[in-house]
Amino acid sequence: MALKLFNTLSRSVREFTPLDPAGKKVGLYCCGPTVYDYAHIGNWRTFVFADLVRRALEFSGYEVQHVMNITDVEDKIIKRVREQKTTLPEFTGKFEAAFLDDLKALGCREPHQKPRATAHIAEIIALIEKLVARGVAYQAADGSVYFSIEKYRGCGCCYGQLLKLNLDEMRAGERVASDEYEKESVADFALWKAYGSEDGEVAWDSPWGKGRPGWHIECSAMSIKALGETFDLHLGGEDLKFPHHEDEIAQSEGATGKPFVKFWLHGAHLLVEGKKMSKSLGNFFTLRDLQAKGFTGREVRFLLLSSHYRETFNFTFDGLAGARTSLARIDECLAKLRELSGGGGGDANSGLLGAFQTALEEDLNISAAWAAVFEWVRETNKRIAENSLSRPDAAAALAGWEKVDSVLGIGVVTEAEVPAEISALAEARTTAKKAKDFKRADALRDDLKSQGWLIEDTAKGPKLKKH
RNA sequence: GGCGGGGUAGCCAAGUGGUAAGGCACGGCUCUGCAAAAGCUGCAUUCGUCGGUUCGAUUCCGACCCUCGCCUCCA
User: Fold this and answer.
1) Helices (H), A312-419
2) Which bases in strand B are touched by protein, i.e. have an atom under 7 Å from a CB?
3) How many independent structural domains does chain A possess?
4) Are residues A169 and A56 in the same domain?
5) Structural domain span for residue A438
6) What pTM did the predictor assign?
7) Quick check: bond before A243 cis, omega within 30?
8) Which position among A36, A209, A222, A357 has the lowest Cβ density within 10 Å, counted as fewest Cβ atoms?
């Protein structure tokens, strides 16, 4: 069996094979955040998707080098730095730290490399020099350096690999009309932007004068540096296909003359309660907003992982509440398994693993993968209830689950410690129950509830759970 | 206008030329002093509409309706 993925280049699901002749190492690049604000759940869907791809590759036995850039110089950043009268590093540092905290809260594995654009100005300049030397880039009268689509095509290169483009049919929208740069052609894009007074302190010296990098160039420079001129996988949100990824291909292939990326993967966007997320609709949420409403990163991760990455996902609060219940069902089953297994290890031999792997390998069919998980939970619960699950069975089931969870990343929830006064209340209730003083027992139960603790009467006695 | 996704139960969401996974919600049952929690269990004669191909279509083809995205710095 082998992992199959939808490659945007071929617009079809293809078996993934790495460039590494040994078939072991895989280079994965994902367009990271532009750190001008807190990332919203739409952004998070993409990063959780990237995490899933990485974990699926690792599950398949590959040794992944995961690179995610931090774009820390860009128009919006410069604007806000100016508005807030702060410095670029101070401003971007804050949002980068927040981003990494959130990434962790969502159970994403940390990328092996997180290069910052501002730390790669030399590489960016070198790449632009190469493009200029090859004749596919030019400096315009405004001092900026642009990439020439026409010259690039003239070299026999293909612009428009990720989607069908008809540059003549494209609407010159407001954005084009408002573009005041002096490009030779509207399709051309900036590699190096000449300094303007509105840039404030944000500028670097270059062979073309003071300025700063264009939007797309940093991804080409950093991915090539980290993973080589040709690498395996490049991921991002679907909106980045054009122009960002198309331009990355043009810059990279224009400079190296080699194919840039073998597999391009794009994650679809999400809607919130059926509508496009926007601040004016009040359905714009960051992870922090959801945490403030009492949801955990783990719950958000579960929800974001509940549908296929190439389908638009509808994020709803009903769904988030459902995520909590679903997770509790899994946790409950695992807790029972742990108790049964006595903490001993075992060899993973569960039907779960096979069904899960089959689903995963089919272009990350996560819904089918979850179905396998829940069928396993039901079957396991049944066997536990009828006492037909032995200790080694339980250990083997847990070992299988751990492999599955290496992809899902739901992890283990440790049960909250019960404070002494809470357990004292619970004991008082048990005493009252034994004395058949149910009125008092119920009052104590309500008391516990108001303090955030639920009491569950199980066959093995009362159990406290944080509410 | 160009290009590309979607429309499957109350909600979310898989899937297949042969008679609809899974989750949430909801109902029933077990457990319980009663609850809660947990567990078990039930829950789409039907897959946007209309035609066509076929022994058979939700799945293929055509038309239409609705919806979403991209079309130059947006994940």
Assistant:
1) 317-341, 351-361, 366-385, 391-408
2) 1-6, 10-15, 21-25, 31-41, 68-75
3) 3
4) yes
5) 420-466
6) 0.94
7) yes
8) A209
In the prediction, which pLDDT does A174 show? 38
Query: What confidence tens digit (pLDDT) does each residue in A70-88 have?
Result: 999 999 999 999 999 999 9
Does the CB of A430 fall within 7 Å of any strand B atom?
Answer: no
Residue A305 CA to its chain's centroid (Å): 10
Write the CA distances from A40 to A95, A360, A422, integer angstroms: 12, 26, 38
What is the distance between the alpha carbons of residues A265 and A259, in angstroms, rounded to a whole number?
16
List of A residues 390-419 with CB within 7 A of strand B: none
Write out residues in chain A with pLDDT < 70, as ranges: 1, 166-181, 413-416, 467
CATH assignment at residue A351: 1.20.120.640
Which pLDDT does position A415 carry in this prediction? 67
Nucleotide nearest the Cα atom of A267 (by C1'): B75
CA/C1' separation A160–B51 (Å): 38
Size of chain A, expressed as the number of residues it contains: 467
Residue A413 lies in a domain: no
Q: What is the pLDDT of residue A175?
A: 43
Provide the pLDDT for residue A178. Answer: 40
The torsion angle over the Cα atoms of residues A48, A53, A55 and A56, rounded to 10 degrees, is 140
Residues A312 and A238 in one domain: no
| CB A83 under 7 Å to nucleic chain B | no
Interatomic distance A174 CA / B2 C1' (Å): 17
Q: Assess whether A306 (CB) lies less than 7 A from strand B.
A: yes
Q: What is the pLDDT of residue A452?
A: 82
One domain, residues A96 and A163: yes
A329 touches strand B (CB under 7 A): yes
Nearest nucleotide to A31 (CA to C1') is B75
